[in-house]
Amino acid sequence: MTIVDTPERRQLRELTRAFVTREVLPHLADWERAGEVPRQLHATAAKTGLLGIGFPEAVGGSGGDLLDSIIVTEEIIRSGGSSGLVAALFTHGIALPHMVAAAGAGSGGKLPRRPDAPGSVDPTGREHDLIDRYVRPTLAGSMIGALAITEPDGGSDVAGIRTHARLDGDHYVVNGAKTYITSGVRADFVTTAVRTGVPGSGTLSLLVIDKGTPGFTVGRRLEKLGWHCSDTAELSFVDVRVPVANRIGEEDTGFLAIMQQFAAERLSLATQAYAIAQRCVELAVSWCRDRSTFGRPLASRQLVRHRLAEMHTRAEAARAYVHQVAARVAAGEPVVTEVAMAKNVAVSAADRVVDQALQLHGGFGYLRDAEVERHYRDARILGIGGGTTEIMNEIIAKGMGL
């Protein structure tokens, strides 16, 4: 038994596997062709208790922590789901945490007294209002949220964001554009990074912008190499009036809020990477046992066995390291460098393993009928999203004092 292998977490794995088997596998191919998952899936996942994993019960979640979220992600993929499904169904994992943190929901699952309670110094109750208006409905599966940071002329350079929000009375007037926004087509609201002052990291803020607000338009649905069941969009803001009440936290604190949530996002992507690797090892082993060439199963050949052994080693090593780093993050340790290393280790393992798994499947692996083909496409984004491999290496180098 380990910190990620307790009786309670084994039950969580079983619950996740049953959900995938019952609610996902019969429909995943159709969702891939449709380019999105149905809204009803969010409600079903919420009723099952999976949608709110990792969020405090005080804000409508199911409780648990980062490790529980990792287990759900891992098991979805190892049960035959996809990382695209994870991206589509759990986009709130990057859209909501800033609101929860601003409201002061701690690891004990409690919210502090509402700021508009007697004796409070903040009569607005703004953060608590955001919890009621956005967090609870999203975790109940009745709303979908997205996070909008990336812009057309910049990706990992968060400090260089140009989308601007000018204060005008009790509203901000927002102008700018965002791109590569996961769930941007279906989202009911978007947690949006905006500039509220002069250029620089110290003048970024976060605003919650509702779909349907005049001037806020969802542009074209972006066609992608992978993650086909996860919709991705371009967003445009032209003189969009957003109430000050929709600001998350204090003005000009957005950069720190974004940075504080990057660890969980990067570890989620790392989990998707090693889980894809594990699943592809399982698929390759099964194929090589059943597939015969020249009168012998592929698995009987030393070259194939050794290749499978190397694939298995890479996947398991990545899993062990990601779990170790995730446990430290869950314990509150500031392990920025280690998170970057965990992401790169897992992505490297996935890149190598999915390539070898498809090769072992031969011509069948190149067909859309093969699950390994989907994983091959889906894995490619993991070294880009949440900070590219190159950005992770820069973080690692700084951690080394270089």
From TrEMBL:
Residues 6-103 form the Acyl-CoA dehydrogenase/oxidase N-terminal domain. Residues 105-128 are annotated as: Disordered. One of its GO terms (molecular function) is flavin adenine dinucleotide binding. GO terms for cellular component: cytoplasm. Its cofactor is FAD. It holds the Pfam family Acyl-CoA_dh_1. One of its GO terms (biological process) is fatty acid beta-oxidation using acyl-CoA dehydrogenase. Residues 253-400 form the Acyl-CoA dehydrogenase/oxidase C-terminal domain. Keywords: FAD, Flavoprotein, Oxidoreductase. Residues 146-240 form the Acyl-CoA oxidase/dehydrogenase middle domain. Belongs to the acyl-CoA dehydrogenase family. This is Acyl-CoA dehydrogenase. It comes from Verrucosispora sioxanthis.
